[in-house]
């Protein structure tokens, strides 16, 4: 309160008009602004800076706050379009508390745009008021005349057929009779279509939705190393050998087969088995040490085959309903041709030596990172883009992108837009195991799917918090992909728990998330030995050596994986993330959650997972029927899609019990009974 | 998956360069974009569409997500300015998880602007890496040479003094010795000031803060009807009489005295006592039926006095440390001069009669609403603005605005900007008892303070939820003002509970909210009779008749009100809303909450309120020391500012008990012991 209360600012240099003369006017708008405010629209990613994500054929649900001063009713409409086509319009409906909702069903892949408009519904307001007055017996002939005038306005904007009807209504009102007209739909329709909307209230700007094909939003990935696809021998397998794996993967119901980099592998500073710094003559090296005299990011490792073999593998996958995804890892071995062709794309140290990858005090001498802060960055960006376009031209429709968070965010934003300009069907999975803001930023700028922290979320509380966050705050722009393992990640839980824990983790990944994946051979067989205690690296990791996988073992998890994928295909509820909801249990080792879908038919799935499969675990699940689109108090049949049993359950507490050796949980399809 | 996986879009009309020729490039930026991303800035009201609110002398705390790809460190700075002055800069500090915070302390009323920038801190990254390598014993002479080159760059941008020192560091590095330099502040300072920031990462756009004088953010309002300020007689009191009330109000520690409209009152359709439709000759009418042959919104009711009397009242208030607030109610009695002068500002019905205010089926024939959808709206807006400017010219610095939600939002936004262009010190309190989105919209577009739903939040759960929402989501733009009663609102709780409930409600309002107010005489004396059961209107409401108030009664709540305002003045913690936190109790009738402040000295206040003063209530309060800026496990002295006792309390459970007749709660000032 030390500030002067009155400054000497009411000085005569600003004329006022208290006696009638006109004062100085600042910024008075040219035309009368709308009384309607539109704000708080969803989806809206960073205020419209980035597109939300949608799927062809699935409605984009839009909501907004729409309100005006005073007592008049407002009407709201959703306007949307594909690309730069003409705008289309859908009415929005009040949800209460000034919130309106509507939706549109995009029918094409690409960028859709929408906005929300609102206006005062004068005719609708009058109809509602007149009904109220009629019920209270205070509707007067003057009130009816006001209505007639409003109808005149609407009828002047209506087509011939409607106009005749509206004129009859106006005539009836002028004759002092409301007759049947107040309840006639013709007035409601006329209010919407011809009531007059000027001045129109609108959101400041538009929002966009990038619409993908369905596989971008629901997919099961299976990763394997093609060089390790011969079981009975030590030889380096080829892409032709890898074709033999496809039947197995298709039988398990996966959608996408994903291969680590298939390019020539550097020899300089090549890593040996178990990541040893001294490779021997026979060591095959890491596929992520990309490039040799045989070529770089657009070449095929000679031991794997040729470009023709890639195309044959693509075609073989397609024949089996699979898509082939390649790994794009923008980094080079010291032998990559780019080091000679484009030395300016790399960093050199004052002694002239090349700058290897570092994470001080560690140093990775088999990898040279690309230096994005170089003066030839435009050529670099174009070359990296052309790597994608090259593989797209070979028939590749999906990519897993290695460590995108170590390349500039603006680079990816540009690159993804470039790819989508001609190949909007491309799916890009971001392998960004980094801090949350960076993981999210990559999703916002365009990656179709994102690896998540699922592998390290072990307890029920951790899983509940994390997947709730993913299904709420991030759901408009980030599509989680849950992997229980990868060639880099063998979690402590998997190391210690044996096959039952692998089963639990598979069940969680496949049902918590519409997108999931496994590093397949190792997962099926429960590969669990770390290189050393405290490390998440595998012993004898396939990253550095050939492996032989005997996939037809009786102890394999393959049947479970196949069953999980079959259940996902049977249940639309499991093919999306938005309706995920958790249900309380009285045992922290029992995690219960549900998903529901309304299309194509009502679908409700309740999963109850035993997080501690080594022990007997029982407890009460408190089923929240309102989260399941069931009526309060509604009983239901619960059919276990894993175990096969069918239970008659009710709302509230239901008992479950798991013994060691049981399936890892129930996947209950619910139906009202 | 019905969408074609591959379209025929890889056609030859888009040349590609897999064999070396350059492909078509879309939208490649001209200069290399920054690697740094800045987003998620706070405060940010609707993405920057509206200013946040601040106070002169109180830091505006700004935070943002700032991050880059890869391993390099980023640095972030807050840039801010008053109006269009030169930008100033403050460093921002990492909070973890890529969040950075900083602040600035505005020293002037008006519009401040800020933004956040970030850049790669190459020198800082090198220093940190070099320290790590040194500790691991792997720091090489080449590493030191890299550092020397970075220092060369910084030193070329530094001033003479610093340059010498930096050159010494570079020399030492070139000689192969890190010496003491890695830990020397000179490198840190050089990294910040001279490390080079191009290309700079920035938030998309700026954000604004409207900075008010402190009274806008912390105030105690006292409302009274000047015509009812003579105790011993039935005569219509004057503004001169009202001056006699000011000593009392000042003694109670209020800041603002607020008068209902003081304009001439219409005679046509005047309301009688208790809102009866037939007024008698002696009925004084409602002050909100504004305008008669004696004038409109810029005239003073002849029975109250003259413009000179208003000025005298303003001066008398100022002498006592009070500000006078007028009520601005933009509506007219049928006798308002504007109906003759500007018939186009009102609505007429087809029979030529004027459109009275309606809420169908109800009709209010003493009030004519202004019709904002008229063709002469520009003149109307200017005239309404000039009403404010007129009273500002008479020395009025604060206004309570009646029903702003029944006038267009864009109108208020324009009007408030107009007022602030010359009178930024003006305080505007929005009386918008309406739906939440409308209440919030008025706060966003510029009202200094907002009436809240406090009056109807009775239970501990309701109060906790509501004030938590106000202190979190809305706190950047909405300043709540809590009123236990108004001339329109006598809640059921007050009707039933007697003086003890009035006391409880006063305690809650004065401590939950930095701004509070009472409809004074009625509140002090516990006026609690409704016109009828189920109504919130008073019996014999002052709105329609003169009243005599004997304020010197022994049963008055005046001493409590005075004590509450004195406690608010003594405790900075109670003079803001941002740090409000609730503490669990085991008795739902006991509500516990705290506020803390760091300036001018650490201040901690813990309130424990008995919501059921008619009965004995006791229970355990679970004091959360971390919410009180106390160390875990810290014991503290709790001095009751209401009761006078001092307790030695500890973290966790502490027992309290209230008997009927006790003060309504404890206001405990806490100090570590």
What does this entry look like structurally?
The structure is a homodimer of 673-residue chains. The longest helix of chain A has 21 residues, at 492-512. Mean pLDDT of chain A is 94; it is low at 1-23. Chain A is globular and about 105 Å long. The first copy, chain A, folds into 4 domains: 36-121 and 200-211, Immunoglobulin-like (Sandwich); 123-194, Up-down Bundle (Methane Monooxygenase Hydroxylase, Chain G, domain 1); 223-262 and 300-330 and 372-570, Glycosidases (TIM Barrel, Alpha-Beta Barrel), CATH 3.20.20; 581-672, Immunoglobulin-like (Sandwich). With 673 residues, chain A is of the alpha/beta class. The first copy, chain A, contains 14 helices and 30 strands. In chain A, 27% of the residues lie in helices and 23% in strands. In chain A, the strands form 7 sheets. An 8-stranded parallel beta barrel of chain A has the order 11-12-13-18-19-20-21-22, surrounded by 4 helices. In chain A, strands 2, 4, 5, 8, 9 and 10 form a 6-stranded mixed β-sheet that branches. A 6-stranded antiparallel β-sheet of chain A has the order 23-24-25-30-27-28, covered by helices on one side. In chain A, helix 1 runs antiparallel to helix 2 (141-157) and helix 12 (492-512) packs parallel to helix 14. In chain A, helix 12 links the parallel strand 21 (480-482) and strand 22. At the A-B interface, strand 1, strand 3, helix 1, helix 2 and helix 8 of A face strand 1, strand 3, helix 1, helix 2 and helix 8 of B.
């Amino acid at each position: 309160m030390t500030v002067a209360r009155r400054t000497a600012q009411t000085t005569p240099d600003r004329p006022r008009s208290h006696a009638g003369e006109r004062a100085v006017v600042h910024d008075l708008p040219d035309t009368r602004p709308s009384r309607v405010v539109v704000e708080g629209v969803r989806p809206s990613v960073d205020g419209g800076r980035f597109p939300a994500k949608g799927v062809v054929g699935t409605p984009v649900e839009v909501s907004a706050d729409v309100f005006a001063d005073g007592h008049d009713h407002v009407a709201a409409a959703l306007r949307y379009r594909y690309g730069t086509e003409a705008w289309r319009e859908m009415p929005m409906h009040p949800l209460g508390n000034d919130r309106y909702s509507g939706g549109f069903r995009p029918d094409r892949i690409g960028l859709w745009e929408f906005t929300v408009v609102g206006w005062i519904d004068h005719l609708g307001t009058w109809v509602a008021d007149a009904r109220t007055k009629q019920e209270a017996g205070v509707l007067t002939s003057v009130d009816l005349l006001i209505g007639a005038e409003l109808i005149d306005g609407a009828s002047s904007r209506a087509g011939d057929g409607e106009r005749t009807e509206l004129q009859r209504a106006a005539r009836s009102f002028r004759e002092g009779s409301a007759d049947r007209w107040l309840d006639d739909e013709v007035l409601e329709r006329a209010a919407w279509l011809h009531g007059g909307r000027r001045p129109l209230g609108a959101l400041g700007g538009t929002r966009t939705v990038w619409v993908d094909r369905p596989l971008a939003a629901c997919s099961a990935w299976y990763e394997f190393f093609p060089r390790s696809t011969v079981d009975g021998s030590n030889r380096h397998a080829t892409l032709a050998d890898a074709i033999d794996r496809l039947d197995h993967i298709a039988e398990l119901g996966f959608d996408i087969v994903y291969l680590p980099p298939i390019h020539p592998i550097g020899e300089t500073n090549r890593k040996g088995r178990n990541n040893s710094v001294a490779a021997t003559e026979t060591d095959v090296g890491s596929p992520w040490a990309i490039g040799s005299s045989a070529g770089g990011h657009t070449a095929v490792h000679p031991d794997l085959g040729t470009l023709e073999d890639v195309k044959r593998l693509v075609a073989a996958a397609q024949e089996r309903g699979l898509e082939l995804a390649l790994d794009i890892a923008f980094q080079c071995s010291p032998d990559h041709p780019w080091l000679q062709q484009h030395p300016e794309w790399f960093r050199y140290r004052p002694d002239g030596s090349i700058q290897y990858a570092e994470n001080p005090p560690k140093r990775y001498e088999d990898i040279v990172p690309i230096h994005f802060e170089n003066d030839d960055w435009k050529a670099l960006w174009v070359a990296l883009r052309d790597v994608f376009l090259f593989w797209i031209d070979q028939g590749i429709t999906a990519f897993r992108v290695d460590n995108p968070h170590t390349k500039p965010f603006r680079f990816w934003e540009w690159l993804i837009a470039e790819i989508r300009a001609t190949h909007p069907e491309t799916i890009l999975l971001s392998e960004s195991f980094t801090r949350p803001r960076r993981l999210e930023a990559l999703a916002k700028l365009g990656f179709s799917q994102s690896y998540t922290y699922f592998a390290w979320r072990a307890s029920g509380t951790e899983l509940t918090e994390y997947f709730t966050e993913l299904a709420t705050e991030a759901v408009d722009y980030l599509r989680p992909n849950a992997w229980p393992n990868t060639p880099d990640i063998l979690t402590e839980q998997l190391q210690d728990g044996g096959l039952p824990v692998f089963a639990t983790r598979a069940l969680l990944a496949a049902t918590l998330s519409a997108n999931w994946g496994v590093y397949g051979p190792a997962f099926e067989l429960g590969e669990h030995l770390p290189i050393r205690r405290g490390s998440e690296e595998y012993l004898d990791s396939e990253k550095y050596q050939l492996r032989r996988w005997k996939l037809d073992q009786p102890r394999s998890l393959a049947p479970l994986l196949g069953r999980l994928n079959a259940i996902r295909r049977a249940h639309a509820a499991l093919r999306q993330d938005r309706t995920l909801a958790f249900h309380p249990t009285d045992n922290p080792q029992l995690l219960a959650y549900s998903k529901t879908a309304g299309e194509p038919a009502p679908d409700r799935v309740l999963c109850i997972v035993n997080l501690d499969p080594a022990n007997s675990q029982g407890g009460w699940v408190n089923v929240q029927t309102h989260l399941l689109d069931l009526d309060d108090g509604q009983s239901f049949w619960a059919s276990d899609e894993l175990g096969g049993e069918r239970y008659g359950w009710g709302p509230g507490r239901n008992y479950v019990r798991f013994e060691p050796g049981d399936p890892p949980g129930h996947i209950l399809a619910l139906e009202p009974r």
